[in-house]
Amino acid sequence: MNKHDFYALVPKAELKQVIDDYQTPGYIYFKKVLHHQINRLKTATHGQFDIHYALKANPNPNMLAELASQGIGADVASEGELTRALAAGFAPEKIEYSGPGKRQDELTLAIDNNIASINIENIKEAEKIVEICKASGQTANVGVRLNPTLENERSGMRMAGDTPFGLKVEDAKVALKIIEDNADVLNFTGFHGHLASQELDADKLVAKYAVVIEHAIALTKDTSLTVKKINFGGGLGIKYFPNQTDLDLSLYADNLKKLIGSEMLSQLPKDIKLIIEPGRFLVGESGVFVTQILYRKQAFTKEFLIADGGLSANYVLAGGMGQVIKRNFELDVMTEKEKAVEGGFKFDVAGPLCTPQDIIASNVDSDVEVDEGDYIVFFNCGAYGPSASPINFLSQKVPAEIII
After folding, report:
1. What confidence score (pLDDT) does residue 127 get?
2. Can you name the residues that pair with 297 across neighbouring β-strands?
3. Is residue 179 a contact partner of residue 133, using CB atoms and an 8 Å limit?
4. CA 230 to CA 35: how far, in whole Å?
């Protein structure tokens, strides 16, 4: 989302008023933007898909409570995330647990809370769930996370193929046999297939959904198991940089409509539950990161604005989380003076850390001068902010978070 689209939802004057009363460095999340994204996605999925939220994108308790209040389900990947989801009000029957390294105590917690599905990613994990259930006299809802080979997959952050996630087809068959042989304690839910991350191509995204369906049909063809759900994972991307194109939600909606009515999907039970698990798509555009300028500093060829928040508060701005080429996020300047500069004002924004990596924007062109005490606002920072940043590095101040 560019700043003009953001200001159409949250006027600049409103944002400035919040910043004036706010502690920096920090994050401000806006419910009206969050609701806007939820409604757009509900419309695009024709009411035929359950929407679960991937907590890894932003586990802020207030954000989670707001999402839970909207009837959204949850995707968790640790004991901590499961605990947060339950505390925020997500219904256990709307929580799925994925992740390649679930500890025994984590599995036990999921079983104790009778969550919707523990998605198995290792044959030993399946055996461990059976042991826990038989020892405790409980049953567990389990699915199988698939990891199929994808042709010509060149995404920057691979979620399928030669990764630690999910099960190859051969191993999935073994896991299904374990589930089938232990039907007294294991309730088979279906399949999970998170095959994309930050995908902006609607055709490619839904094509990956079709791959999961194809495998679900083939794997259960000769079993007694019924596929009750297919969870397609997340992967819906958002526009971060000027040269990117937004995910075409109209095309995504059209593709989903074709998928829903396809002959392939008709081979599965009519009452099958279809699930998507977006994270950043729901919350990414709802948040801004705000940092205040402490000093201006002229180096040999560059003008640096030294800010009170850098990579320890927002690692993604500094190029973290799988960026191949570091690029500037959409940003804006909040200044009282609004002093125009003839020929423009070019600067880099550096954080307070004593590392050359602490550059969160480079070669920024501004029509107005930016000075000490002014603020830089970075957009699209509602996902992978504090949760994905090295907050303890150099013992810097933990960034503030508020939801408006």
Report:
1. 98
2. 304
3. no
4. 25
